Amino acid sequence: MMDANSFAGLRIAIASPEKIRSWSYGEVKKAETMNYRTLKPERDGLFCEKIFGPTKDFECACGKYKRLRYKNIICDRCGVEVTKSKVRRERMGHIELATPVSHIWFFKGVPSRMGLVLDMSPRDLEEVLYFVSYVVLDPGDTPLEKKQTISDKEYRSYYEKYGNTFRVGMGAEAIKELLKEVDLQKEVDTIKKEIDEIKDSSSQKRVRLIKRLDVLDAFLESGNRPEWMILDALPVIPPELRPMIQLDGGRFATSDLNDLYRRVINRNNRLKKLIDLSAPSIIIQNEKRMLQEAVDALFDNGRRGKNITGPGNRPLKSLSSMLKGKQGRFRQNLLGKRVDYSGRSVIVVGPSLKMHECGLPKEMALELFKPHVIHGLVSKEIASNIKAAKRMIENQDERVWDVVEEVIKEHPVMLNRAPTLHRLGIQAFEPKLVDGKAIRIHPLVCEGFNADFDGDQMAIHVPISEEAQAEARILMLASNNILSPKDGSPIVTPRQDMVLGNYYLTMEKPGAKGEGRAFRNSDDVIMAFQRGEVDMHARVAVPVKSFKHKIFPDKYLDKYLVTTPGKLIFNDVFPDTFQYINDGTSENATKSTPAVHFIDKGKNIPEEIKNKELVPAFNKSVIGKLISQIYKRYHTTETSVMLDAIKNLGFKYSTISGVSISIDDIKESSIKKDVINEAQNKVDTINKQFRRGLITDQERYENVIQTWFDAKDKIYDDLNNQLKANPNSSISMMINSKARGSIDQYGQLAGMRGIVSKPNGDYVEIPITSSLSEGVTVSEFFTSTHGTRKGAVDTALKTADAGYLTRRLVDVVQDVIVKANDCGTDQGVVIEAFKNTDGTLIESLEDRIVGRYTSKNILKPGTKEVLVEKDTYITERIAEKIIEAGITKVPIRSVLTCKIDHGVCRKCYGRNLATGSEVEIGEAVGIMAAQSIGEPGTQLTMRNFNTGGVAGGDDITQGLPRVTEIFEARNPKGKATISEINGVVTEIKEDGGSFKISVKNDVETREHVTNYGAKLIVEKGQEVKAGERLTAGPINPKELLVVTDPITVQQYILYEIQKVYRSQGVDISDKHVEIMAKRMISKIRIVDSGDSYFLPGTMININEFTEENKKLILEGKRPSTGKPVLLGITKASLETDSFLSAASFQETTRILTDAAVHGKVDHLTGLKENVIIGKLIPAGTGAKKYRDTEYTLENALLKDEPLEALEQELMD
Question: Which residues of the sequence carry a binding annotation for Mg(2+) (predicted)?
Answer without folding.
Answer: 452, 454, 456
